[in-house]
Amino acid sequence: MATKTETTVEEKLRALYDLQLIDSRIDEIRNVRGELPLEVEDLEDEVAGMNTRLEKLQGELETIEDSIKEKKNGIEESKALIKKYSAQQENVRNNREYNSLSKEIEFQELEIQLSEKHIKEFKAQIEQKNQVIDETKANLQKRQEHLEHKQGELDEILAETEKEEKALIKESEKYQEKIEDRLVNAYHRIRNNVKNGLAVVPVERGASGGSFFTIPPQVQMEIASRKKIITDEHSGRILVDPELAKEEKEKMEQLFHKVS
pTM of the prediction? Predict the structure, then answer.
């Protein structure tokens, strides 16, 4: 872990503003990506969901087809039994045996009718499920194409920015090591609470950067003296003088050029 060697207020202000410039550059890179990573993630989830649904539908189809085979086998068994009972009727000794066999034949004929009814219903279900499968496949293809397009966009942006972002994250960590924890924590707290993540801003045209609230001349002189850390009473942002900001921006531009 690097030693935190900042001793003067001016050094602390410079380090804080440098950290802000680095983090703002990282924000810019991430803003270029925008919502693309989330869009890609949502599309991936959607495609995965559709594939799961297709697998489920395919499984249901197979189950129905197995049921049709089972019913067809049942019909063949019933036909064989009818044939057997009909042959037995020719050799009966009395009416009671004949009637008993007739009932068995009638029962098997009803079984055949019921199985044929079930087969018809199963075939209707297959037709319906095939229609749903075709629709799902068509939608899946569209979503996959859309995903490929969005993934291509994201890959292109990542290829351009990922190296720079990683290098800047390391620089951000390096600069945080130079600043005492109390100030780093305050910086992050302000950064999380303000619009556009600007926790350290220069005085511009007599006001806090990005604000319309005028800073009294006496306070502006104190900021320019760099003897203590001053925050904007309206936004809570840490304030630096324009000259310091200009010098650090020029220094950071060289760093950004180096890592890009």
Answer: 0.61
